[in-house]
Protein backbone atom coordinates (compact mmCIF):
# COMPACT_ATOMS: atom_id res chain seq x y z
CA UNK A 1 0.00 0.00 0.00
CA UNK A 2 1.37 3.41 -0.85
CA UNK A 3 1.79 6.17 1.68
CA UNK A 4 -0.81 8.88 1.72
CA UNK A 5 -1.30 12.06 3.68
CA UNK A 6 -4.26 11.55 6.04
CA UNK A 7 -7.28 13.83 5.70
CA UNK A 8 -7.75 16.35 8.45
CA UNK A 9 -10.83 14.87 10.07
CA UNK A 10 -9.08 11.52 10.38
CA UNK A 11 -6.04 13.17 11.94
CA UNK A 12 -8.37 14.86 14.39
CA UNK A 13 -10.11 11.63 15.25
CA UNK A 14 -6.78 9.96 15.89
CA UNK A 15 -5.72 12.82 18.15
CA UNK A 16 -9.11 12.70 19.85
CA UNK A 17 -8.39 9.14 20.86
CA UNK A 18 -5.57 10.40 23.05
CA UNK A 19 -7.05 13.60 24.43
CA UNK A 20 -10.69 12.63 24.73
CA UNK A 21 -10.86 9.33 26.47
CA UNK A 22 -14.19 9.76 28.21
CA UNK A 23 -16.62 12.54 29.14
CA UNK A 24 -14.50 13.48 32.13
CA UNK A 25 -11.53 14.23 29.89
CA UNK A 26 -13.69 16.61 27.82
CA UNK A 27 -14.76 18.37 30.99
CA UNK A 28 -11.14 18.62 32.08
CA UNK A 29 -10.02 20.26 28.82
CA UNK A 30 -12.92 22.70 28.77
CA UNK A 31 -12.57 23.77 32.38
CA UNK A 32 -8.83 24.20 31.92
CA UNK A 33 -9.51 26.46 28.97
CA UNK A 34 -11.88 28.52 31.10
CA UNK A 35 -9.26 28.84 33.83
CA UNK A 36 -6.61 29.83 31.28
CA UNK A 37 -9.03 32.50 30.03
CA UNK A 38 -9.09 34.05 33.50
CA UNK A 39 -12.60 33.00 34.46
CA UNK A 40 -13.84 33.77 37.98
CA UNK A 41 -16.94 31.62 37.69
CA UNK A 42 -17.26 28.32 35.86
CA UNK A 43 -20.48 26.35 35.50
CA UNK A 44 -20.22 22.72 34.42
CA UNK A 45 -23.42 20.97 33.36
CA UNK A 46 -23.69 17.37 32.25
CA UNK A 47 -26.43 14.90 31.36
CA UNK A 48 -26.35 11.23 30.52
CA UNK A 49 -22.97 10.85 32.17
CA UNK A 50 -21.68 13.51 29.78
CA UNK A 51 -22.59 11.47 26.75
CA UNK A 52 -25.67 13.46 25.83
CA UNK A 53 -24.56 16.84 27.16
CA UNK A 54 -21.52 18.63 28.50
CA UNK A 55 -21.65 22.38 28.85
CA UNK A 56 -18.93 24.55 30.35
CA UNK A 57 -19.71 28.19 30.74
CA UNK A 58 -17.22 30.79 31.91
CA UNK A 59 -16.91 34.54 32.39
CA UNK A 60 -13.35 34.73 31.11
CA UNK A 61 -11.81 36.75 28.30
CA UNK A 62 -13.92 35.22 25.54
CA UNK A 63 -12.80 35.27 21.89
CA UNK A 64 -13.21 37.55 18.92
CA UNK A 65 -14.26 36.29 15.49
CA UNK A 66 -10.79 35.35 14.25
CA UNK A 67 -9.87 33.52 17.43
CA UNK A 68 -13.19 31.72 17.51
CA UNK A 69 -12.59 30.32 14.05
CA UNK A 70 -9.03 29.34 14.88
CA UNK A 71 -9.87 27.86 18.27
CA UNK A 72 -11.46 24.76 16.75
CA UNK A 73 -8.54 24.17 14.40
CA UNK A 74 -5.89 21.67 15.28
CA UNK A 75 -2.59 22.95 16.66
CA UNK A 76 -4.02 26.40 17.12
CA UNK A 77 -3.30 27.93 20.50
CA UNK A 78 -2.92 31.35 22.03
CA UNK A 79 -0.79 29.94 24.84
CA UNK A 80 2.65 29.48 23.36
CA UNK A 81 3.84 32.99 22.61
CA UNK A 82 7.30 31.79 21.61
CA UNK A 83 8.30 28.34 20.47
CA UNK A 84 9.66 27.04 23.78
CA UNK A 85 8.02 24.21 25.72
CA UNK A 86 10.06 24.62 28.85
CA UNK A 87 8.29 27.46 30.56
CA UNK A 88 4.62 26.60 30.43
CA UNK A 89 2.41 28.49 32.83
CA UNK A 90 -0.99 27.78 31.35
CA UNK A 91 -2.96 24.57 31.69
CA UNK A 92 -3.33 24.16 27.92
CA UNK A 93 -0.67 24.59 25.26
CA UNK A 94 -1.16 21.78 22.78
CA UNK A 95 -3.95 23.49 20.90
CA UNK A 96 -5.79 20.32 20.08
CA UNK A 97 -8.57 19.89 22.62
CA UNK A 98 -11.34 21.74 20.81
CA UNK A 99 -10.34 20.29 17.43
CA UNK A 100 -10.30 16.80 18.91
CA UNK A 101 -13.66 17.21 20.62
CA UNK A 102 -15.10 18.59 17.40
CA UNK A 103 -13.97 15.42 15.65
CA UNK A 104 -15.94 13.06 17.89
CA UNK A 105 -19.01 15.05 18.89
CA UNK A 106 -21.27 17.92 18.06
CA UNK A 107 -19.41 20.96 19.40
CA UNK A 108 -20.62 24.51 19.80
CA UNK A 109 -18.27 27.25 20.91
CA UNK A 110 -19.84 30.60 21.72
CA UNK A 111 -17.79 33.54 22.94
CA UNK A 112 -17.91 37.21 23.58
CA UNK A 113 -15.06 39.55 24.44
CA UNK A 114 -15.24 42.53 26.75
CA UNK A 115 -15.63 45.11 24.00
CA UNK A 116 -17.71 43.17 21.50
CA UNK A 117 -21.22 44.38 20.77
CA UNK A 118 -22.52 40.83 20.90
CA UNK A 119 -21.44 37.23 21.06
CA UNK A 120 -20.61 34.83 18.23
CA UNK A 121 -20.74 31.11 17.87
CA UNK A 122 -19.35 28.41 15.67
CA UNK A 123 -20.52 24.82 15.42
CA UNK A 124 -18.46 21.80 14.54
CA UNK A 125 -20.03 18.49 13.73
CA UNK A 126 -17.47 15.75 13.33
CA UNK A 127 -14.89 18.22 12.04
CA UNK A 128 -17.31 20.03 9.71
CA UNK A 129 -17.32 23.70 10.69
CA UNK A 130 -20.28 26.01 10.36
CA UNK A 131 -20.34 29.71 9.58
CA UNK A 132 -19.81 32.12 12.45
CA UNK A 133 -23.25 33.05 13.72
CA UNK A 134 -24.42 35.69 16.19
CA UNK A 135 -25.17 34.56 19.72
CA UNK A 136 -26.73 36.51 22.57
CA UNK A 137 -24.57 36.13 25.66
CA UNK A 138 -22.52 37.86 28.33
CA UNK A 139 -18.76 38.16 28.26
CA UNK A 140 -17.00 34.82 28.35
CA UNK A 141 -17.23 31.52 26.58
CA UNK A 142 -19.83 28.75 26.49
CA UNK A 143 -18.74 25.42 25.07
CA UNK A 144 -21.43 22.80 24.49
CA UNK A 145 -20.68 19.22 23.56
CA UNK A 146 -23.49 16.90 22.51
CA UNK A 147 -23.62 13.31 21.33
CA UNK A 148 -20.09 12.60 22.41
CA UNK A 149 -18.61 9.60 20.57
CA UNK A 150 -21.87 9.10 18.68
CA UNK A 151 -19.86 8.23 15.57
CA UNK A 152 -17.14 6.32 17.42
CA UNK A 153 -18.65 3.00 18.48
CA UNK A 154 -15.25 1.67 19.53
CA UNK A 155 -15.00 4.41 22.12
CA UNK A 156 -18.61 4.15 23.26
CA UNK A 157 -18.09 0.51 24.04
CA UNK A 158 -15.45 1.32 26.62
CA UNK A 159 -17.52 3.85 28.51
CA UNK A 160 -18.91 2.79 31.83
CA UNK A 161 -22.42 3.39 33.10
CA UNK A 162 -23.77 6.95 33.05
CA UNK A 163 -23.40 6.98 36.78
CA UNK A 164 -19.74 5.97 36.68
CA UNK A 165 -18.99 8.53 33.97
CA UNK A 166 -20.82 11.22 35.95
CA UNK A 167 -18.78 10.30 39.01
CA UNK A 168 -15.59 10.65 36.97
CA UNK A 169 -16.75 14.08 35.81
CA UNK A 170 -17.35 15.11 39.42
CA UNK A 171 -13.90 13.88 40.36
CA UNK A 172 -12.26 15.94 37.61
CA UNK A 173 -14.17 19.05 38.62
CA UNK A 174 -13.23 18.52 42.26
CA UNK A 175 -9.55 18.37 41.37
CA UNK A 176 -9.72 21.48 39.21
CA UNK A 177 -11.73 23.32 41.85
CA UNK A 178 -9.17 22.52 44.51
CA UNK A 179 -6.35 23.74 42.33
CA UNK A 180 -8.20 27.01 41.74
CA UNK A 181 -9.78 28.29 44.94
CA UNK A 182 -10.00 31.76 43.40
CA UNK A 183 -12.66 30.50 40.98
CA UNK A 184 -16.34 29.95 41.81
CA UNK A 185 -17.38 26.49 40.59
CA UNK A 186 -20.86 25.18 39.97
CA UNK A 187 -21.43 21.56 39.01
CA UNK A 188 -24.93 21.01 37.71
CA UNK A 189 -27.12 19.01 35.37
CA UNK A 190 -29.38 15.99 35.50
CA UNK A 191 -26.45 13.71 36.44
CA UNK A 192 -26.49 14.85 40.06
CA UNK A 193 -27.87 17.31 42.54
CA UNK A 194 -25.92 20.54 42.15
CA UNK A 195 -22.73 21.48 43.95
CA UNK A 196 -21.91 25.12 44.43
CA UNK A 197 -18.47 26.13 45.58
CA UNK A 198 -18.21 29.92 45.82
CA UNK A 199 -14.72 31.36 45.87
CA UNK A 200 -13.42 32.88 49.00
CA UNK A 201 -9.84 32.53 47.84
CA UNK A 202 -8.78 30.43 50.81
CA UNK A 203 -7.34 27.07 49.91
CA UNK A 204 -8.51 25.58 53.18
CA UNK A 205 -12.06 26.70 52.57
CA UNK A 206 -12.04 25.12 49.12
CA UNK A 207 -10.58 21.88 50.44
CA UNK A 208 -13.43 21.78 52.94
CA UNK A 209 -16.01 22.41 50.23
CA UNK A 210 -14.63 19.63 48.08
CA UNK A 211 -13.32 17.03 50.51
CA UNK A 212 -15.73 17.71 53.33
CA UNK A 213 -15.35 19.48 56.63
CA UNK A 214 -14.39 16.30 58.40
CA UNK A 215 -11.24 15.94 56.30
CA UNK A 216 -10.13 19.44 57.23
CA UNK A 217 -10.75 18.61 60.88
CA UNK A 218 -8.69 15.46 60.61
CA UNK A 219 -5.75 16.95 58.76
CA UNK A 220 -2.67 18.99 59.52
CA UNK A 221 -1.36 21.84 57.36
CA UNK A 222 1.76 21.32 55.27
CA UNK A 223 4.30 24.10 54.87
CA UNK A 224 7.84 23.15 53.89
CA UNK A 225 10.29 24.55 51.37
CA UNK A 226 13.17 22.35 50.39
CA UNK A 227 15.38 21.99 47.31
CA UNK A 228 13.40 24.82 45.70
CA UNK A 229 10.15 22.90 46.13
CA UNK A 230 7.37 24.59 48.10
CA UNK A 231 4.99 22.05 49.62
CA UNK A 232 1.63 23.21 50.99
CA UNK A 233 -1.77 21.66 51.54
CA UNK A 234 -3.34 19.40 54.13
CA UNK A 235 -2.21 15.95 55.21
CA UNK A 236 -4.82 13.65 56.73
CA UNK A 237 -4.09 12.11 60.08
CA UNK A 238 -3.10 8.46 59.77
CA UNK A 239 -6.28 7.36 61.50
CA UNK A 240 -8.26 9.12 58.79
CA UNK A 241 -6.90 6.83 56.07
CA UNK A 242 -9.27 5.51 53.45
CA UNK A 243 -9.68 2.27 51.55
CA UNK A 244 -9.05 3.84 48.14
CA UNK A 245 -7.08 6.69 46.64
CA UNK A 246 -10.04 8.91 45.73
CA UNK A 247 -9.22 11.16 48.68
CA UNK A 248 -5.70 11.84 47.45
CA UNK A 249 -5.26 15.06 45.53
CA UNK A 250 -1.96 16.07 43.96
CA UNK A 251 -1.17 19.39 42.34
CA UNK A 252 1.97 20.71 40.74
CA UNK A 253 2.00 24.39 39.86
CA UNK A 254 -1.79 24.46 39.93
CA UNK A 255 -2.15 21.41 37.70
CA UNK A 256 -3.85 18.29 39.02
CA UNK A 257 -1.57 15.34 38.38
CA UNK A 258 -1.13 11.66 39.06
CA UNK A 259 2.54 11.15 39.43
CA UNK A 260 4.47 8.14 40.64
CA UNK A 261 7.08 10.21 42.43
CA UNK A 262 4.43 12.00 44.49
CA UNK A 263 2.38 8.87 45.17
CA UNK A 264 5.51 7.06 46.25
CA UNK A 265 6.62 9.91 48.48
CA UNK A 266 3.25 10.01 50.25
CA UNK A 267 3.25 6.27 50.72
CA UNK A 268 6.75 6.41 52.12
CA UNK A 269 5.92 9.26 54.47
CA UNK A 270 2.97 7.38 55.91
CA UNK A 271 4.59 3.96 55.83
CA UNK A 272 5.03 3.85 59.58
CA UNK A 273 1.51 4.99 60.38
CA UNK A 274 -0.84 3.56 57.80
CA UNK A 275 -1.21 -0.04 56.70
CA UNK A 276 -0.11 -0.83 53.20
CA UNK A 277 -3.60 -1.35 51.87
CA UNK A 278 -4.96 1.92 53.22
CA UNK A 279 -4.62 5.32 51.62
CA UNK A 280 -4.04 8.46 53.66
CA UNK A 281 -6.27 11.34 52.61
CA UNK A 282 -4.19 14.22 51.38
CA UNK A 283 -4.32 17.45 49.40
CA UNK A 284 -0.76 18.11 48.31
CA UNK A 285 0.24 21.26 46.47
CA UNK A 286 3.71 21.69 45.00
CA UNK A 287 5.17 24.90 43.65
CA UNK A 288 8.29 24.40 41.63
CA UNK A 289 10.19 26.29 38.95
CA UNK A 290 8.27 25.44 35.74
CA UNK A 291 11.60 24.81 34.06
CA UNK A 292 12.28 22.01 36.54
CA UNK A 293 9.30 19.96 35.45
CA UNK A 294 8.24 18.62 32.06
CA UNK A 295 4.46 18.59 31.64
CA UNK A 296 4.59 17.53 28.01
CA UNK A 297 4.89 13.79 28.57
CA UNK A 298 1.23 12.81 28.49
CA UNK A 299 -1.55 13.82 26.06
CA UNK A 300 -3.96 14.64 28.88
CA UNK A 301 -1.12 16.26 30.83
CA UNK A 302 -1.97 14.16 33.88
CA UNK A 303 1.57 12.91 34.19
CA UNK A 304 4.76 14.86 34.35
CA UNK A 305 8.45 14.45 34.84
CA UNK A 306 10.54 16.16 37.50
CA UNK A 307 14.10 17.04 36.67
CA UNK A 308 15.10 16.34 40.27
CA UNK A 309 12.67 13.67 41.38
CA UNK A 310 14.81 12.78 44.39
CA UNK A 311 14.62 16.35 45.65
CA UNK A 312 10.85 16.47 45.15
CA UNK A 313 10.40 13.18 46.95
CA UNK A 314 12.54 14.39 49.83
CA UNK A 315 10.62 17.64 50.13
CA UNK A 316 7.24 15.89 50.19
CA UNK A 317 8.30 13.30 52.76
CA UNK A 318 9.85 15.99 54.96
CA UNK A 319 6.74 18.16 54.75
CA UNK A 320 4.43 15.33 55.76
CA UNK A 321 6.64 14.00 58.55
CA UNK A 322 7.10 17.51 59.96
CA UNK A 323 3.38 18.15 59.93
CA UNK A 324 2.45 14.80 61.45
CA UNK A 325 5.26 15.16 63.97
CA UNK A 326 3.92 18.47 65.13
CA UNK A 327 0.53 16.89 65.55
CA UNK A 328 2.11 14.46 67.96
CA UNK A 329 2.14 11.48 65.64
CA UNK A 330 5.65 10.13 65.70
CA UNK A 331 7.32 7.43 63.75
CA UNK A 332 7.49 4.27 65.75
CA UNK A 333 10.91 3.89 67.26
CA UNK A 334 13.48 2.21 65.12
CA UNK A 335 14.40 -0.06 68.00
CA UNK A 336 11.00 -1.69 67.89
CA UNK A 337 11.39 -2.17 64.15
CA UNK A 338 14.77 -3.77 64.55
CA UNK A 339 13.47 -6.20 67.09
CA UNK A 340 10.50 -7.06 64.92
CA UNK A 341 12.76 -7.52 61.94
CA UNK A 342 15.03 -9.81 63.87
CA UNK A 343 12.28 -12.07 65.16
CA UNK A 344 10.75 -13.88 62.29
CA UNK A 345 7.05 -14.49 62.34
CA UNK A 346 5.93 -17.96 61.29
CA UNK A 347 6.01 -18.31 57.52
CA UNK A 348 2.65 -17.06 56.31
CA UNK A 349 2.77 -19.39 53.33
CA UNK A 350 2.65 -22.33 55.68
CA UNK A 351 -0.26 -20.87 57.57
CA UNK A 352 -2.35 -20.83 54.39
CA UNK A 353 -3.00 -24.50 54.24
CA UNK A 354 -4.23 -25.57 57.63
CA UNK A 355 -4.91 -24.28 61.10
CA UNK A 356 -1.62 -23.50 62.83
CA UNK A 357 0.50 -26.01 61.01
CA UNK A 358 3.68 -24.11 61.56
CA UNK A 359 3.88 -24.04 65.29
CA UNK A 360 7.07 -25.62 66.35
CA UNK A 361 7.87 -26.28 62.72
CA UNK A 362 9.88 -23.13 62.13
CA UNK A 363 13.43 -24.13 61.38
CA UNK A 364 15.48 -23.24 64.38
CA UNK A 365 17.84 -21.41 62.06
CA UNK A 366 15.13 -18.86 61.44
CA UNK A 367 16.05 -17.11 64.62
CA UNK A 368 19.79 -17.52 64.20
CA UNK A 369 20.24 -13.93 63.19
CA UNK A 370 19.08 -12.58 66.49
CA UNK A 371 22.30 -13.20 68.35
CA UNK A 372 23.52 -9.79 69.45
CA UNK A 373 27.10 -10.79 68.82
CA UNK A 374 26.61 -11.56 65.17
CA UNK A 375 24.34 -8.96 63.61
CA UNK A 376 24.28 -5.23 63.17
CA UNK A 377 20.70 -5.21 64.29
CA UNK A 378 21.70 -6.94 67.45
CA UNK A 379 24.38 -4.39 68.14
CA UNK A 380 22.06 -1.44 67.78
CA UNK A 381 19.63 -3.08 70.16
CA UNK A 382 22.36 -3.58 72.66
CA UNK A 383 23.41 0.01 72.34
CA UNK A 384 19.92 1.27 72.93
CA UNK A 385 19.65 -0.67 76.17
CA UNK A 386 22.86 0.80 77.51
CA UNK A 387 21.05 3.12 79.85
CA UNK A 388 19.60 0.18 81.74
CA UNK A 389 22.44 -0.75 84.05
CA UNK A 390 20.33 -2.98 86.24
CA UNK A 391 17.29 -5.09 85.64
CA UNK A 392 14.45 -2.73 86.38
CA UNK A 393 11.86 -5.26 87.38
CA UNK A 394 11.52 -8.69 88.81
CA UNK A 395 9.59 -11.27 86.89
CA UNK A 396 7.88 -14.13 88.54
CA UNK A 397 7.45 -17.45 86.90
CA UNK A 398 4.19 -19.26 87.26
CA UNK A 399 4.03 -23.00 86.95
CA UNK A 400 1.91 -24.09 84.05
CA UNK A 401 -0.64 -26.78 84.74
CA UNK A 402 0.81 -29.65 82.68
CA UNK A 403 -2.33 -30.54 80.73
CA UNK A 404 -2.51 -27.06 79.19
CA UNK A 405 0.96 -27.50 77.91
CA UNK A 406 -0.30 -29.23 74.85
CA UNK A 407 -2.19 -26.35 73.20
CA UNK A 408 -0.24 -25.20 70.14
CA UNK A 409 -0.75 -21.55 71.01
CA UNK A 410 -0.32 -22.20 74.71
CA UNK A 411 -2.05 -20.64 77.67
CA UNK A 412 -2.50 -16.92 78.07
CA UNK A 413 -0.32 -15.42 80.77
CA UNK A 414 -0.75 -11.70 80.29
CA UNK A 415 -1.99 -8.98 78.05
CA UNK A 416 0.43 -6.25 77.07
CA UNK A 417 -0.41 -2.77 75.82
CA UNK A 418 -4.02 -3.82 75.62
CA UNK A 419 -3.37 -5.58 72.36
CA UNK A 420 -0.80 -8.33 72.72
CA UNK A 421 -1.52 -11.60 74.38
CA UNK A 422 1.50 -13.24 75.93
CA UNK A 423 1.12 -16.98 76.09
CA UNK A 424 3.34 -19.89 76.91
CA UNK A 425 3.13 -23.33 75.35
CA UNK A 426 5.66 -25.36 77.20
CA UNK A 427 8.89 -24.55 75.47
CA UNK A 428 7.89 -21.41 73.63
CA UNK A 429 6.70 -17.88 74.20
CA UNK A 430 3.80 -16.90 71.93
CA UNK A 431 2.88 -13.29 71.26
CA UNK A 432 -0.52 -12.74 69.66
CA UNK A 433 -1.82 -9.55 68.09
CA UNK A 434 -5.38 -9.76 69.35
CA UNK A 435 -6.89 -7.40 66.81
CA UNK A 436 -5.24 -9.05 63.84
CA UNK A 437 -6.19 -12.48 65.10
CA UNK A 438 -9.78 -11.61 65.84
CA UNK A 439 -10.18 -9.99 62.47
CA UNK A 440 -9.24 -13.26 60.82
CA UNK A 441 -11.62 -15.22 63.05
CA UNK A 442 -14.55 -12.95 62.27
CA UNK A 443 -13.71 -13.17 58.58
CA UNK A 444 -13.70 -16.95 58.63
CA UNK A 445 -16.93 -17.10 60.66
CA UNK A 446 -18.55 -14.85 58.08
CA UNK A 447 -17.53 -17.10 55.26
CA UNK A 448 -18.70 -20.18 57.09
CA UNK A 449 -22.09 -18.60 57.77
CA UNK A 450 -22.47 -17.30 54.25
CA UNK A 451 -21.88 -20.78 52.88
CA UNK A 452 -25.16 -21.78 54.54
CA UNK A 453 -27.29 -18.87 53.29
CA UNK A 454 -27.67 -15.19 54.19
CA UNK A 455 -25.74 -14.08 57.23
CA UNK A 456 -27.83 -13.46 60.35
CA UNK A 457 -28.49 -9.83 61.11
CA UNK A 458 -29.51 -7.82 64.09
CA UNK A 459 -31.95 -4.94 63.97
CA UNK A 460 -30.79 -1.48 64.97
CA UNK A 461 -33.17 0.03 67.52
CA UNK A 462 -32.93 3.29 65.67
CA UNK A 463 -31.63 3.24 62.10
CA UNK A 464 -28.20 4.79 61.85
CA UNK A 465 -28.23 7.56 59.25
CA UNK A 466 -24.91 8.31 57.59
CA UNK A 467 -24.27 11.13 55.16
CA UNK A 468 -22.44 10.43 51.93
CA UNK A 469 -21.73 12.18 48.66
CA UNK A 470 -24.41 11.35 46.18
CA UNK A 471 -22.17 9.07 44.10
CA UNK A 472 -21.50 6.92 47.15
CA UNK A 473 -25.22 6.75 48.00
CA UNK A 474 -25.97 5.51 44.50
CA UNK A 475 -23.32 2.85 44.66
CA UNK A 476 -24.42 1.70 48.11
CA UNK A 477 -28.01 1.59 46.98
CA UNK A 478 -27.01 -0.58 44.02
CA UNK A 479 -25.06 -2.86 46.27
CA UNK A 480 -27.83 -3.15 48.89
CA UNK A 481 -29.12 -6.58 47.79
CA UNK A 482 -25.61 -8.03 47.96
CA UNK A 483 -24.89 -6.41 51.28
CA UNK A 484 -28.16 -7.80 52.64
CA UNK A 485 -26.83 -11.30 52.01
CA UNK A 486 -24.04 -10.36 54.38
CA UNK A 487 -26.49 -9.19 57.03
CA UNK A 488 -26.12 -5.48 56.32
CA UNK A 489 -29.43 -3.83 55.43
CA UNK A 490 -29.16 -0.36 53.94
CA UNK A 491 -31.69 2.03 52.51
CA UNK A 492 -31.39 5.29 50.66
CA UNK A 493 -32.30 8.15 52.96
CA UNK A 494 -32.70 11.27 50.84
CA UNK A 495 -30.22 12.32 48.17
CA UNK A 496 -27.11 12.29 50.32
CA UNK A 497 -27.64 9.86 53.14
CA UNK A 498 -27.98 6.16 53.80
CA UNK A 499 -29.94 4.57 56.64
CA UNK A 500 -28.55 1.39 58.19
CA UNK A 501 -31.39 -0.77 59.52
CA UNK A 502 -29.74 -4.07 60.35
CA UNK A 503 -26.14 -5.11 60.79
CA UNK A 504 -24.49 -8.54 60.72
CA UNK A 505 -25.08 -10.23 64.07
CA UNK A 506 -21.51 -11.48 63.97
CA UNK A 507 -20.15 -8.00 64.32
CA UNK A 508 -21.86 -7.23 67.60
CA UNK A 509 -21.90 -3.56 68.53
CA UNK A 510 -19.35 -2.26 66.09
CA UNK A 511 -18.46 0.97 64.43
CA UNK A 512 -21.28 1.07 61.87
CA UNK A 513 -20.34 4.45 60.54
CA UNK A 514 -16.76 3.46 59.82
CA UNK A 515 -17.86 0.14 58.37
CA UNK A 516 -20.29 1.59 55.85
CA UNK A 517 -17.82 4.31 54.86
CA UNK A 518 -15.20 1.66 54.18
CA UNK A 519 -17.60 -0.33 52.07
CA UNK A 520 -18.53 2.81 50.14
CA UNK A 521 -14.86 3.44 49.48
CA UNK A 522 -14.48 -0.09 48.23
CA UNK A 523 -17.46 0.22 45.91
CA UNK A 524 -16.05 3.44 44.49
CA UNK A 525 -12.72 1.81 43.92
CA UNK A 526 -14.15 -1.22 42.18
CA UNK A 527 -16.67 0.90 40.34
CA UNK A 528 -18.85 -1.36 38.26
CA UNK A 529 -15.93 -3.03 36.64
CA UNK A 530 -16.59 -6.37 38.22
CA UNK A 531 -19.72 -8.03 39.43
CA UNK A 532 -20.13 -7.32 43.10
CA UNK A 533 -20.64 -11.01 43.75
CA UNK A 534 -16.96 -11.54 43.00
CA UNK A 535 -16.12 -8.97 45.62
CA UNK A 536 -17.83 -10.64 48.53
CA UNK A 537 -14.52 -11.59 50.09
CA UNK A 538 -13.30 -8.02 50.02
CA UNK A 539 -16.51 -6.78 51.57
CA UNK A 540 -16.37 -9.42 54.27
CA UNK A 541 -12.77 -8.43 54.94
CA UNK A 542 -13.84 -4.85 55.49
CA UNK A 543 -16.64 -5.97 57.77
CA UNK A 544 -14.35 -8.23 59.75
CA UNK A 545 -11.91 -5.40 60.29
CA UNK A 546 -14.62 -3.28 61.86
CA UNK A 547 -16.18 -6.04 63.88
CA UNK A 548 -13.00 -7.12 65.56
CA UNK A 549 -11.69 -6.62 69.03
CA UNK A 550 -9.93 -3.35 68.68
CA UNK A 551 -6.49 -3.02 70.08
CA UNK A 552 -6.95 -1.14 73.28
CA UNK A 553 -9.52 -3.50 74.74
CA UNK A 554 -8.61 -5.23 77.93
CA UNK A 555 -9.35 -8.94 77.76
CA UNK A 556 -9.92 -11.28 80.67
CA UNK A 557 -7.77 -14.39 80.86
CA UNK A 558 -10.64 -16.64 79.82
CA UNK A 559 -11.35 -14.38 76.85
CA UNK A 560 -7.74 -14.55 75.82
CA UNK A 561 -7.69 -18.32 76.06
CA UNK A 562 -10.92 -18.57 74.12
CA UNK A 563 -9.33 -16.50 71.38
CA UNK A 564 -6.27 -18.75 71.29
CA UNK A 565 -8.39 -21.89 71.13
CA UNK A 566 -10.50 -20.48 68.32
CA UNK A 567 -7.38 -19.55 66.39
CA UNK A 568 -6.19 -23.10 66.66
CA UNK A 569 -9.40 -24.33 65.11
CA UNK A 570 -9.63 -21.77 62.32
CA UNK A 571 -7.97 -22.04 58.93
CA UNK A 572 -5.54 -19.31 57.90
CA UNK A 573 -5.47 -17.91 61.39
CA UNK A 574 -1.71 -17.45 61.30
CA UNK A 575 -2.17 -14.28 59.34
CA UNK A 576 -4.66 -11.50 59.45
CA UNK A 577 -6.67 -10.60 56.37
CA UNK A 578 -4.12 -7.96 55.46
CA UNK A 579 -1.42 -10.57 55.32
CA UNK A 580 0.36 -9.67 58.51
CA UNK A 581 1.16 -12.34 61.05
CA UNK A 582 -1.29 -12.74 63.90
CA UNK A 583 1.26 -14.23 66.23
CA UNK A 584 4.97 -14.65 66.70
CA UNK A 585 6.47 -17.61 68.45
CA UNK A 586 9.81 -17.51 70.23
CA UNK A 587 11.22 -20.83 71.34
CA UNK A 588 12.89 -21.05 74.67
CA UNK A 589 16.09 -21.87 72.83
CA UNK A 590 15.72 -18.72 70.77
CA UNK A 591 15.34 -16.65 73.90
CA UNK A 592 18.41 -18.30 75.34
CA UNK A 593 20.38 -17.67 72.20
CA UNK A 594 19.25 -14.07 72.20
CA UNK A 595 20.79 -13.65 75.63
CA UNK A 596 23.91 -15.48 74.61
CA UNK A 597 23.25 -18.39 76.96
CA UNK A 598 23.80 -21.13 74.45
CA UNK A 599 26.27 -21.63 71.71
P1 LIG B 1 -5.08 24.91 24.17
O1 LIG B 1 -5.86 25.09 25.41
O2 LIG B 1 -4.05 23.84 24.30
O3 LIG B 1 -4.51 26.17 23.62
P2 LIG B 1 -7.60 24.23 22.98
O4 LIG B 1 -7.97 23.45 21.78
O5 LIG B 1 -8.12 23.76 24.26
O6 LIG B 1 -6.03 24.32 23.02
O7 LIG B 1 -8.07 25.71 22.76
C1 LIG B 1 -7.59 26.43 21.63
C2 LIG B 1 -7.61 27.90 21.87
O8 LIG B 1 -8.95 28.36 21.95
C3 LIG B 1 -6.96 28.33 23.15
O9 LIG B 1 -5.56 28.52 23.01
C4 LIG B 1 -7.68 29.65 23.46
O10 LIG B 1 -7.07 30.72 22.80
C5 LIG B 1 -9.04 29.43 22.86
N1 LIG B 1 -10.03 29.06 23.91
C6 LIG B 1 -10.47 27.82 24.18
N2 LIG B 1 -11.37 27.83 25.19
C7 LIG B 1 -11.47 29.11 25.60
C8 LIG B 1 -12.23 29.78 26.64
N3 LIG B 1 -13.04 29.11 27.46
N4 LIG B 1 -12.09 31.12 26.75
C9 LIG B 1 -11.26 31.80 25.92
N5 LIG B 1 -10.52 31.23 24.94
C10 LIG B 1 -10.62 29.90 24.77
MG1 LIG C 1 -7.10 23.67 26.18
Q: Radius of gyration, rounded?
A: 30 Å
N→C terminal distance: 79 Å
The description of the largest β-sheet is: 9 strands, mixed
Uncertain stretches of 5 or more adjacent residues: 328-341, 343-400
Strand content: 15-25%
Helix content: 25-40%
Helix- and strand-based class?
alpha+beta
Beta-strand segment tally: 23
Determine the number of helices (DSSP H or I, runs of at least 4 residues): 19
Shape: elongated
Mean model confidence by pLDDT:
79
- What are the distinct ligands in this entry? adenosine-5'-diphosphate, magnesium ion
What does this protein look like?
The protein has 599 residues and is an alpha+beta fold. It is built from 19 helices and 23 strands. The strands form five sheets. Strands 1, 2, 3, 4, 5, 6, 7, 8 and 9 form a nine-stranded mixed sheet that branches. Strands 10-11-14-12-13 form a five-stranded mixed sheet, with helices on both faces. A four-stranded antiparallel sheet has the order 17-18-19-23. Helix 9 runs parallel beside helix 10. The longest helix is centred in the first third of the chain and has 18 residues. It starts with 7 loop residues before the first helix and ends in a 5-residue tail after the last helix. About 12% of the residues have low confidence. The structure holds adenosine-5'-diphosphate and magnesium ion. The site of magnesium ion (MG) has 5 residues, from helix 2.
Amino acid sequence: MSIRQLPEDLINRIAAGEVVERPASVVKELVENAIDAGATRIVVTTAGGGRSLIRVEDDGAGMDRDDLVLSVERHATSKLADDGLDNIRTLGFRGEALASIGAVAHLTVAARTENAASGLRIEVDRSRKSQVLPQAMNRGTIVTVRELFAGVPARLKFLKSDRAEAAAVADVVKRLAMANPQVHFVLDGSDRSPSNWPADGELRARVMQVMGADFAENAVPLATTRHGVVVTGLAGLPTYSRANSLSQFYFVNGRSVRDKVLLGAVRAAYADFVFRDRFPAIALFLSIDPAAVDVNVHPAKAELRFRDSGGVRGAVIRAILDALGEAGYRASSTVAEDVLGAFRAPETAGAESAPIPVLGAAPSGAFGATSPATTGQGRSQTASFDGLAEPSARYEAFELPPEEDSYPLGTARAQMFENFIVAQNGDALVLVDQHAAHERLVYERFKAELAGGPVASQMQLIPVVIEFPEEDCERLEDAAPTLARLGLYLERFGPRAIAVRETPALLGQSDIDGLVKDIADGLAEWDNSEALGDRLDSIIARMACHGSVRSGRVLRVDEMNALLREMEGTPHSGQCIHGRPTYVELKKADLERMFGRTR
